[in-house]
Specification:
Layout (H helix, E strand, L loop, with lengths): L8 H12 L59 H9 L6 E4 L5 H18 L3 E5 L17 H12 L6 E6 L9 E6 L5
Parallel strand pairs: 1-2
Antiparallel strand pairs: 2-4, 3-4
Helix pairs in contact: 3-4
Length: 190
């Protein structure tokens, strides 16, 4: 059988202070008060005064916190009910944006403007028609076919409405299938 360890002087003093703050349930069994020695609280040394000509420069500001990693709007944001209804084609889009056939600059402008309109109208489900994806790598596309499809997620993440997008999901075949996606917008807070 092991014997319990004894309290150090600092631990005994701390325990005595804690015990002194407790009132006993049965006053007859109250322990005798233990006189407490005053505890010396160390005070920080004053900062040295610089006696240079001019002003003392202020301390450097703390480093700015690192920005949070960009969230993946194509992987979360919806409950299972939304996902089920979208996959079955049970929901109808309240707003449609067709970028198919536009140049990259025109498509980007149209996307930003269209999302602003959809939000102003209170739409939650936006159908974005982009055209089908192409097997060519996105970096090599430029203005070639499939360039809008390769760029739209980047535009959404970097756009002014990124915080209002809950999720992006593939469209049901009745709404364009592989050539379109659903953008699900968050409910307005207020």
């Amino acid at each position: 059988m092991r014997t319990p360890r004894r309290l150090s002087a600092a631990e005994a003093e701390l325990w005595a202070r804690v015990a002194a703050t407790v009132s006993p349930i049965d006053p007859a069994r109250a322990a005798r008060p233990v006189p407490l020695a005053p505890v010396a609280v160390p005070t920080p040394a004053p900062a040295p005064v610089k006696r240079a000509k001019g002003r003392v420069p202020p301390p450097p500001p703390p480093p700015a916190p690192a920005p949070p990693p960009p969230r993946r709007i194509d992987a979360h944001g919806l409950d299972a009910g939304w996902d089920r209804r979208l996959a079955r084609g049970l929901l109808s889009p309240e707003f449609t944006l067709d970028l198919h056939g536009a140049s990259l600059d025109a498509a980007h402008t149209r996307l930003e403007h269209g999302l602003a309109l959809a939000l102003a109208q209170g739409a939650r489900l936006v159908l974005l028609i982009t055209g089908r994806p192409r097997p060519q790598p996105a970096a090599d596309r430029g203005e070639a076919r499939g360039a809008i499809r390769a760029k739209f997620v980047d535009w959404l993440l970097a756009g002014q409405h990124a915080g209002r997008i809950a999720a992006i999901r593939p469209a049901h075949p009745r709404h364009g299938g592989g050539g379109a996606v659903y953008i699900i917008l968050r409910k307005p807070r207020g």
